[in-house]
Structure formats: C-alpha cells, structure tokens
Amino acid sequence: MKLTSILPLVNWGMGSIIIGVFAVVCIAMVLIIYNMVNSDKKQKTDSNSTIE
Q1: Direct distance between the N- and C-terminal alpha carbons of the chain, in angstroms, rounded to an integer
Q2: How far apart, in whole angstroms, are the C-alpha atoms of residue 47 and residue 27?
Q3: How crowded is the C-beta side of 19, counted as CA atoms within 13 Å?
C-alpha cells in the first residue's frame, strides 16, 4: 500500500472551515447567554425598585 493513496483521505481545508464555523457558533451562543443573564438582572432590580 502506498502512502500517497492514504493522504487524499484528509481534507485540511474543509476541516479548518468546519472548526472555524463551530468556534463562531460557540462564541455567539456564549454572547447570547451572557446578554440574557445581564438583562434578567436588570429587570429584577427595576421591579424591586418599583415595589419599594
């Protein structure tokens, strides 16, 4: 079996693109959750200040 017949099985370009897309999606999800947590804290403080 030749080594050259095994090498084309890996497409580094497509793998790098998929890893990049996965990283962007993870960062977007973290930012969305971070914004949701911060907006929840602001609403709780506003509702508590109106009750008092």
Answers
A1: 80
A2: 31
A3: 6
Q: Which residue has the tokens 């907006």?
A: 39
Tens of pLDDT, residues 1-44: 566 665 566 678 888 999 999 999 999 999 999 999 988 665 56
Nearest to 18 by CA among 8, 6, 10, 7: 10
Q: What is the pLDDT of residues 24-35, one digit of tens each?
A: 999 999 999 999
3-state SS, residue 3? helix
What Rg do the C-alpha atoms of the chain give, in angstroms?
24
- Tokens 């580094």 map to which residue? 12
Token readout for 5 is: 């017949």
